[in-house]
Target: Heme utilization protein
Amino acid sequence: MTDAQYNHGNQVTNKGTQNNASANGSIGGVSGNVGANVAAGDNNQQANAVALATADESFVFGYANASTSVTQQAYNNKLDNYSTANNASLNNSLQGISGNFGVNVAAGNYNQQKNDMAAAVSNGQYTSAAGSATQTSNGNVTTNNSTVKTEYVQVGMGFVAGGGYKGISDQHGDTYLDTWSGETHPGGSNTGHIDVDSQAQGASDRLNNGGALSFDEVGTIGLAGFATGYIPVVSGFNKAVVNNASLNGSIIGVSGNVGVNVAAGGGNQQTNSLSIGAGCSACAGKSTF
Model:
């Protein structure tokens, strides 16, 4: 049996993402071959495989062979996490079971996990079981960030402004008004003029710039207004990237071949391999590899 897992050239960006996977309280009181995979996140690879071979001694050659070969490669992957939470759990499980079982639990990204078993049983003279595993991880980039937590608060603002002004209006320069005998201009003949200068009776040249007319100005200015809206308030940071994988209260009272992988984070590679060869101990010329 040949197994290969390749994980490369991927890009994942998580912003406030929550991934949860659970199989709590499961896989109890069973027997035989059991494979379980629990993953939370992105681009995780998990597998369970069993290779069995048997040969009867009545066969001419009586030869049984079983082998496993595992290859895991992870390269050139890019992962950006912003306040992301990944949780994978298999709590209170795998109790009171027997046989061969493999369990993988992963929380995060680009995790590779594998459980392989090769078993060869022969009543003949020859038995062979082999296992190999290759894991390659390079050129991967993971960035974990916390995002700013921003809340908006309603605000109201009011203002009132008041004031006043005081001044004068003063005629600038002397003026002499013509008088005519006609009722409308330019009817009749010119009869004289009226002096409007600083020498006129009752003249008020307050700015000493000529003229006879002057007025006092007194006034009040008032402004009022109200504004309402929302302003952003930075209240802190969201929770940083959290990856949790748990297998609490599990694997109790079991027997047989047990393979368990628990990973939290990114780019983890895990494998469990078992090779068993059993031949006939009473057979002449018996060989086990």
User: Anything to note?
Assistant: The chain has two domains: 2-147+238-288, 155-231. The chain is about 0% helix and 65% strand. The chain has a mean pLDDT of 79. The radius of gyration is 48 Å.
